[in-house]
Amino acid sequence: MLNTLYLTFLGILLSSVLGLTCAVLRTSKNIVVRTLLAIYVEIFRNTPIVAQIFYLYFVLPTVGIKISAFNCGLIALVLHFNAYNIDVFRSGLEAVPAGLEEAGKALGLAGFQRLTFIIMPIALRVCLPALVNNYVAVLKNTAYVSIIGVMELTFVAGAIVADDFTFMEMYSTISLLYILLVFGLTWSLRLVEKRYAIEL
Predict the structure, then answer these.
(1) Which of 19, 68, 77, 142 holds its CA 20 to 30 A away from the CA of 136?
(2) Backbone angles phi, psi at 165, to 5 degrees
(3) How far apart are CA 42 and CA 103, in angstroms?
(4) Domain residues of the chain, as ranges?
(5) Dist. CA 18–CA 12, nearest whole Å
(6) Which among 37, 197, 46 has a CA at the least distance from the CA of 130?
(7) What are the Cα distances from residue 179, in Å, to 46, 73, 149?
(8) Nearest-CA neighbor of 72 among 103, 50, 44, 105?
(9) Domain spanning 2-196: which superfamily?
């Protein structure tokens, strides 16, 4: 349970920070950066997360890069959902009325100041509904890291089933646990969304 929650927390945090950074870069005027990020998004959104986990865990060691199973699972979760978060954050940034940035320019604010104090606070609020869905998906997809031996809920349930053949008991139990975890996370995020969401 703790590993599941730890993976979820780190996956949400890192994919959000990285997604926001990449979204800003994707709206830049540098065509090379925009193209590279577009390719990254297409690759990670159009391949299964299971394949990405396997690639990190089995392929990287063949070129001398060895990463623990837990970190492979975390990196795969972050890279996969970062690809979704980039478009969510980009949509939020583009939804901010151009007049607000013009007002910032009129006040003498530099580009970074306009981004930080005017554009970003509004964009993040616009993004909230879509981000809630992505964050819940991070939690549910932590189950996939069990395929490389990470000790989370699904892995432990499978190990117990292999010994005791208690299929109904164990899988009913983890299903209930996932429902409770998803409900708790959704409820918490909806409170944040209700508090900060705005309509333009």
Answers:
(1) 68
(2) 60, 30
(3) 35
(4) 2-196
(5) 10
(6) 197
(7) 27, 21, 23
(8) 50
(9) MetI-like (1.10.3720.10)
